[in-house]
């Protein structure tokens, strides 16, 4: 056997989009220092305004990101009949769909396969983590000339907040590709800055600190408004101050709404919910894996009114598995499998699945052949993504890769096409290139007749 070579890939590096999160404190809202409002305005730029747009079937979206490039062969598109060097080290599990199998670490997903659609023919052009992540979030190839808004920022811009909650939430954070691009900072993500798996989990900055009563809070609010009115009278260009005022109003509404604060807490969730979403520990260190509680919180947030929640789950060793893919996937996938299946089941039981679009994405797939380090390298030519709810047809396998999972064999789907389908379900025209990627909604054929996309 050839000696193992050191992996040259440093893996994905995604600093969060907002670097000042840990400095935000409600207690400073009445002063001139940093505050919760800075979360809504990491920099003040002229607001672009909003669009009074009619919602589509997908009233909310949960965007689950598996960063690093999840292997489609070790997840949604195994090739049990292929030679061992292509097939890889894992077995398969039968699903509820006749003749369809998933990788062996997705037994819970196999049980809800009749509620989801797996797109096995996604095709990209960029085997680079940062650039492919940018395309995954925005639908555009990176360019030095312009920064495009992410799907969360577009949703925030097009529909605005609902029930005093931020329109766009990062759980616990979003990478720079999940930013606002050329849109105003006010459409950026509210980042939790904390993992629900942590003991005594609390979202910072949405509760009044000790010693600050509601009456005192309102006095501080009035004082700030008076100060801003004074500056408006002396400023030659008050537009930026008006934008900042809107950020503060968002902050005040969030802090003062008991219902909004409740949405960011897991208090009151019964033990049956923990069992439904699963609770796993990292076999290497024993730490609690947070994806189950993250997806449970995502459900609470969309149920309360958040329009788009991004959840990033890195597994236990990441998904950039150039080395020892069997161990990495087998350690990290079971927690996701249980949590994702639990989320779909939970949304369906509550009658929320038809109005909540859930998407599972990674920036690219992995090479057809297992490499000499028992891993797989970057591969963008074909890979798999998942859609569920929000009007998407249930129980579908759309498209196919070839026998070695190296190229699309049927119905190739570009990243732009995939996001165009998501945008259309939200009620956003994918041909509006100002905001949405220039793609076409996915179309399928059933019983020999064209069907309107993946719509059920």
Question: What is the tally of beta strands?
Answer: 17
Q: CA-to-CA gap between the ends?
A: 50 Å
Secondary structure category: alpha/beta
Strand portion: 5-15%
Radius of gyration: 22 Å
Please give the count of helices: 12
Report the oligomer.
single chain
Query: Biggest sheet, open or closed, and with what strands and sense?
Result: 9 strands, mixed
Low-confidence stretches: 17-50, 216-228, 444-450
What does this structure look like?
The chain has 456 residues and is α/β, with parallel strands linked by helices. The chain is built from 12 helices and 17 strands. Helix 6 (214-234) packs antiparallel against helix 7 and helix 10 (291-304) packs parallel to helix 11. The N and C termini lie far apart (50 Å).
Give the SSE map.
Layout: H1 37-40, E1 60-65, H2 84-87, E2 92-94, E3 101-103, H3 107-111, E4 116-123, H4 129-138, H5 151-159, E5 168-171, E6 190-191, H6 214-234, H7 239-256, H8 258-263, H9 271-277, H10 291-304, E7 308-312, H11 325-349, E8 356-361, E9 365-366, E10 378-379, E11 383-388, E12 396-398, E13 400-401, E14 408-410, E15 413-414, H12 415-426, E16 444-446, E17 449-451
Parallel strand pairs: 1-7, 1-8, 4-12, 4-15, 5-6, 5-7
Antiparallel strand pairs: 2-3, 4-11, 8-11, 9-10, 13-14, 16-17
Helix pairs in contact: 6-7, 10-11
Defining traits:
456 residues, alpha/beta, nine-stranded mixed sheet, two-stranded antiparallel ribbon, 12 helices, globular
């Amino acid at each position: 056997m050839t000696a193992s070579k050191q992996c040259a890939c440093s893996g994905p590096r995604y600093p969060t989009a907002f670097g000042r999160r840990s400095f935000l404190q409600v207690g400073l809202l009445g002063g001139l220092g940093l505050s919760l409002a800075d979360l809504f305005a990491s920099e003040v730029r002229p607001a672009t305004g909003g669009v009074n747009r009619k919602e589509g079937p997908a009233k909310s979206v949960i965007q689950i990101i598996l960063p690093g490039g999840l292997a489609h062969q070790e997840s949604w598109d195994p090739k049990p009949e292929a030679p061992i060097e292509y097939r890889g080290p894992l077995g398969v599990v039968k699903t509820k769909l006749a003749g369809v199998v998933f990788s062996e670490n997705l037994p819970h997903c196999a049980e809800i396969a009749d509620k989801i659609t797996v797109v096995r023919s996604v095709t990209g052009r960029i085997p680079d983590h940062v650039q492919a992540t940018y395309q995954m979030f925005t639908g555009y190839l990176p360019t030095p000339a312009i920064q495009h808004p992410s799907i969360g920022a577009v949703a925030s811009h097009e529909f605005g907040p609902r029930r005093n909650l931020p329109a766009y939430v990062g759980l616990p954070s979003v990478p720079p590709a999940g930013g606002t691009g050329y849109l105003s900072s006010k459409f950026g993500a509210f980042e939790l800055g904390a993992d629900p798996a942590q003991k005594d989990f609390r979202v910072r900055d949405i509760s009044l600190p000790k010693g600050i009563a509601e009456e005192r809070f309102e006095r501080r609010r009035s004082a700030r408004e008076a100060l801003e009115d004074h500056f408006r009278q002396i400023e030659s260009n008050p537009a930026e101050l008006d934008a900042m005022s809107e950020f503060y109003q968002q902050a005040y509404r969030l802090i003062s709404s008991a219902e909004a604060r409740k949405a960011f807490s897991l208090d009151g969730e019964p033990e049956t919910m923990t069992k439904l979403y699963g609770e796993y520990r990292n076999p290497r260190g024993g730490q609690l894996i947070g994806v189950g509680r993250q997806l449970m919180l995502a459900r609470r947030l969309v149920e309360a009114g958040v329009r788009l929640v991004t959840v990033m789950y890195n597994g236990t060793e990441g998904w950039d598995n150039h080395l020892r893919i069997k161990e990495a996937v087998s350690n990290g996938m079971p927690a996701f499998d249980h949590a994702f299946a639990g989320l779909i089941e939970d949304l369906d039981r509550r009658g929320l699945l038809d109005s909540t679009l859930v998407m599972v994405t990674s920036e690219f797939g992995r090479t057809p052949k297992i490499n000499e380090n028992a891993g797989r390298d970057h591969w963008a030519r074909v890979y798999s993504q998942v859609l569920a709810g929000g009007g998407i047809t249930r129980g579908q396998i759309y498209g196919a890769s070839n026998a070695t999972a190296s190229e699309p064999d049927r119905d190739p789907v570009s990243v732009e096409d995939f996001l165009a389908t998501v945008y259309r379900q939200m009620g956003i025209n994918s041909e509006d290139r100002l905001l949405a990627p220039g793609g076409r909604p996915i179309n399928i054929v059933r019983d020999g007749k064209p069907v309107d996309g993946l719509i059920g």
